[in-house]
Design brief:
With about 80 residues, the protein is mostly helical. The protein has one domain. The chain is about 90% helix and about 0% strand. The longest helix is centred in the N-terminal third of the chain and has 24 residues.
Length: about 80
């Protein structure tokens, strides 16, 4: 069950990011996907957008693996020390 949750988190976050950026473009269909990927990629274009979404997916998978509570506790411990 934990593996399923990690996979859903890894796929869900990049999808949410892509949908939000697509909504801000004001376009629809394939033009919205193309311009959203180009916006996310910056100077690297669509390929950079695909890489950025892949990195976001890996980060979401790592957060789901370790748990957000553990990550936040370690960050607060470093800040207080």
């Amino acid at each position: 069950m934990d593996e399923v949750i990690r996979t859903v988190a890894a796929l869900g976050l990049p999808a949410i990011i892509l949908v939000i950026v697509m909504a801000t473009t004001g376009l629809s269909g394939a033009a919205a996907i193309t311009s959203a990927l180009a916006i996310l990629g910056g100077p690297a274009g669509m390929v950079g957008g695909i890489v950025a979404l892949g990195i976001a997916g890996k980060l979401a998978e790592l957060l789901a693996k370790f748990g957000i509570e553990l990550v936040l506790m370690r960050k607060l411990d470093r800040r207080n020390a």
